[in-house]
Design brief:
- The complex is a heterodimer of chains A (about 375) and B (about 100).
- Chain A is α/β, with parallel strands linked by helices.
- Chain A has two domains: about 140 residues, Thiolase/Chalcone synthase (Peroxisomal Thiolase, Chain A, domain 1); about 220 residues, Thiolase/Chalcone synthase (Peroxisomal Thiolase, Chain A, domain 1), CATH 3.40.47.10.
- Chain A contains 15 helices and twelve strands.
- The chains are: A alpha/beta (about 375), B mainly beta (about 100).
- The interface between A and B is medium-sized, with 34 and 31 residues.
- Strand 5 of chain A pairs antiparallel with strand 1 of chain B.
């Protein structure tokens, strides 16, 4: 069995004083200190990052991490757009499954705020199909098409989506690592400017800097000595067409459904066993779809279900979603997000989630999506 | 910078997609585009299902407000898509207008 024994994240936001690898260094130093590991006790590193090659001509990150960590071990970078962090974690888990008694370090990081919004949007568009780019479709545009389709199909309005952001900003207010700590109202969301109709600024995750890291191990002696540990019950990746137009259902992320079904099968637990989940809310509509495609809510009912806020901290629900603030309020440094999600579940399972600690948590799920649904990673942790 | 080679390769495909009738199955209006499209914003983009069931994307042009809706009948046309600089290659591609 593989266990997570430590997690550290930098603050997410506009961190102008730090470069990409300053952030990586902070995350590495932080997680090693937390777990009392030395650099020599790390056997391999997996790094999730999307944009460094595109935005800042910055590649060969394994070697840069080798320099920071002062080691000569295998280090790999994973790229799957916004699911780069989740993909790195999955590779790390498979590495442990193939090698006994190892400790691996998994890092996700992104540096985005050095660039204008247009440059960042163009960089992110590299993860869309050529035709989508040529039609002037951005990621917000693709999710906006999905949102528009969903709202029309099930007779909802933009207001139904707004509740997602209200909840996640409330959770962000409880997380001192979150980019946005400000609570917002449904009216605030509805009054904010359009990014791509029907999605507005407050339906959208921001452009962010940040790095997050976890230690994962399959060394039973090491696990026994750890104060904080969570078992990795499943980590599953599924893929789908890069083009939204090639998918059978526009209002469904099939990769999420497949990854989730495989993950629940491997973890041998039911949906109702999950107490906390971090789902990929790059846009408000994405959390609604995630809740449906992960199998927590029925297709088409998400727009209605969110109104009563059953997944908000403090409302007494059985499943609390995006306690970190989600991508919306915690921020979305693309490569870091998948690791932050898993880290947040680790904090919840080990009672370290402070003001946002959900009670009696036994199982948690992290859901990370790349592009408009071309990659999905679902991870289930338990204690 | 727009690669002339990429344009040349793509044009062979684009010509097969011109003059096709179809129906809008999903749409949006982009207010915050990437660098190359900034000067055209806001602009509507539609996903169209052609009569042969093939789906293609394109911006909707020469339209009235009421044309931008699901189910609208449209036809594909050849239009300028973007130009990265005043003396650079101009990219042409598929757009749609109401039928």
């Amino acid at each position: 069995m593989n266990y997570i024994t430590g997690y550290y994240t930098t603050k997410f936001g506009e961190i102008w004083e730090k470069s990409l690898f300053d952030l990586v260094k902070e995350a590495i130093t932080g997680v090693l200190k937390q777990t009392n590991l030395t650099n020599k006790q790390i056997d391999a590193v997996f790094f999730g990052n999307m944009l460094a090659g595109v935005l800042e001509n910055n590649l060969h990150s394994p070697s840069k991490i080798s320099e920071i960590l002062k080691v000569n071990i295998p280090i790999f970078r994973a790229e799957a757009a916004c699911a780069s962090g989740g993909a790195a974690f999955n590779l790390a888990k498979n590495y442990l499954d193939a090698n006994r008694n190892k400790n691996v370090l998994v890092i996700g990081a992104e540096k985005m705020t050095d660039y204008s919004p247009e440059e960042a949007i163009t960089g992110l568009s590299a993860a869309a199909s050529g035709e989508e780019q040529e039609a002037g479709l951005t990621f917000s545009g693709l999710y906006a098409m999905i949102a528009n389709y969903y709202l029309e199909k099930y007779s909802y309005s933009e207001k139904n989506l707004a509740y997602v952001s209200v909840k996640n900003h409330f959770h962000g207010s409880l997380n001192d690592k979150a980019q946005f700590r400000r609570k917002i109202t449904v009216e605030d969301v509805l009054k904010s400017a359009y990014v791509a109709y029907p999605l507005k600024v407050l339906d959208s995750s921001p452009i962010s800097d940040g790095a997050s890291a976890v230690i994962m191990t399959n060394n039973p002696d090491w696990v026994k000595k750890q104060k904080y540990k969570a078992a990795v019950l499943a980590s599953e990746v599924a893929t789908d067409t890069i083009s939204l137009k090639e998918r059978k259902n526009i209002d469904e992320i099939l990769a999420t459904k497949i990854a989730a079904n495989n993950a629940f099968k491997n973890a041998k637990i039911d949906r109702t066993d999950i107490n906390v989940a971090e789902v990929h809310d790059c846009f408000s509509i994405a959390e609604i779809l995630a809740m449906e495609d992960l199998g927590f809510w029925k297709k088409g009912e998400g727009g209605e279900n969110i109104i009563e806020q059953p997944t908000m901290f403090g409302n007494g629900g059985n499943l609390i979603v995006n306690t970190s603030g989600g991508l919306k309020a915690a921020g979305h440094p693309v490569g870091a997000t998948g690791i932050k999600q898993i880290g947040e579940i680790f904090l919840q399972l080990t009672g370290q989630a402070e003001k946002r600690q959900v009670k009696n948590v036994k199982y948690g799920l992290a859901h990370n999506v790349g592009g408009s649904g071309g990659t999905a990673v679902v991870t289930i942790l338990g204690i | 910078m727009i690669s002339p080679v990429k344009i040349w390769r793509r044009q062979k495909e684009i010509r097969k997609l011109i003059g096709k009738k179809g129906r809008v199955v999903a749409w949006t209006k982009i207010f915050t585009p990437g660098s190359d499209f900034k000067k055209y914003a806001p602009y509507p983009v539609v996903l169209v299902e052609l009569e042969n069931k093939e789906k293609i994307y394109g911006q909707l042009v020469d339209h009235e407000k009421e044309d931008l809706k699901t189910g609208s009948q449209v036809i594909s046309i050849l239009r300028k898509v973007r130009a990265s600089s005043s003396d650079g290659v101009i990219a042409y591609g598929v757009k749609f207008k109401p039928l």
